[in-house]
TrEMBL record, chains A, B:
It comes from Candidatus Weimeria bifida. One of its GO terms (molecular function) is precorrin-8X methylmutase activity. Pfam families: CbiC. Belongs to the CobH/CbiC family. GO terms for biological process: cobalamin biosynthetic process. This is Precorrin-8X methylmutase. Pathway: Cofactor biosynthesis; adenosylcobalamin biosynthesis. SUPFAM superfamilies: Precorrin-8X methylmutase CbiC/CobH. Gene3D superfamilies: Cobalamin biosynthesis CobH/CbiC, precorrin-8X methylmutase. Residues 13-209 form the Cobalamin biosynthesis precorrin-8X methylmutase CobH/CbiC domain.
Amino acid sequence: MADDEYIFVKPEEIEKESFRIIGEELDREGIKLKPEEEPYIKRCIHTSADFSYAKTLTFTENATAVLEDLIRDGASVICDTQMALAGINKSGLKKYGCEAHCFMSDQRIREIAKKEGITRAAASMEAAAHLEGKKIFAIGNAPTALLKLDLLHCEQGFNPDFIIGVPVGFVNAAYSKDLILKTKIPCIVNRGRKGGSNIAACLVNAALKHIGQSK
Amino acid sequence: MADDEYIFVKPEEIEKESFRIIGEELDREGIKLKPEEEPYIKRCIHTSADFSYAKTLTFTENATAVLEDLIRDGASVICDTQMALAGINKSGLKKYGCEAHCFMSDQRIREIAKKEGITRAAASMEAAAHLEGKKIFAIGNAPTALLKLDLLHCEQGFNPDFIIGVPVGFVNAAYSKDLILKTKIPCIVNRGRKGGSNIAACLVNAALKHIGQSK
């Protein structure tokens, strides 16, 4: 069906119909997705209307199972933007005892960033590394957040439990994602320049949806 | 420069360097943008790393001047997601007396949506139409919000002062944007399926940046 035709769909059916169209178009292009990655990739396409995610979204071994287990265990989710925090299903996370955080607007983070000549995103990562318990980093905006996580990992032995690494941009976005893929940290990364706070949030939400469906 | 090389850029220079790279790539592709539209289109590319916005972002006559005047006049900005609201520079808007709103989580909106069998986004638009003063609608998610604005316009004579129409998706996203372009409402619309809450927010922020620079 052409995109510029009106389709009548009941409010509660819109998401389902969107996923049906996405599945149909992937089939038409002959793109086969791994079953465990499929709901994540389709949700990124649903969020962006960009089918390139089917080619660039990259998962380490068992990444989705690791991520879903972390959520079941009540891990903290740390975002690098208020937008990602706003987009994450926080009441869904709460059911598993998970809390989502974003330190970007904290006055202390501003001060550290200014003093050290680093971005607020990088300073946020350092603060988040000191949080108690398991930690999922959901980075949709700042390559410097991923660069800082890599530095903390390589130089101080910090091990994030999971990284959703989907910063968007032109300065070190692709590079920072390649760097994370070279570590042994379980992650989902979108290779190249694309990503965003909306994509970071949708990947957390994809995990929640999938846990909910497989209960 | 290849995307996977590290580039050293000071925190305060990252955005400037990103815009330089975007300009360079547009030049290389021979894409010429209208001066008044350029900062808006470049900011969408900056937000998404997607150069297709250079071809699909569509402005009605004098759209950017109309939008900037509305902000200077203290118009309300109504979003269809908490994500867009989170991404908008609200302290920047406040300088001009503008307030940003999102009614999506209001209990009353949930009740109306349920009762009328419409989406919460559509119900939000109806509520927003009753706000006092000038109104800018920044729609990044729900095609049904644009469909409702069109209905209010055509059937009840409601005139939004400006529409940023960039919902993303597969069910009526492209159609709803074409519909708004057919009205006489001043707007910026991204033709086709692409858009998002991040794009809606970045277009409001582009207007604020441009007003700030041209003071």
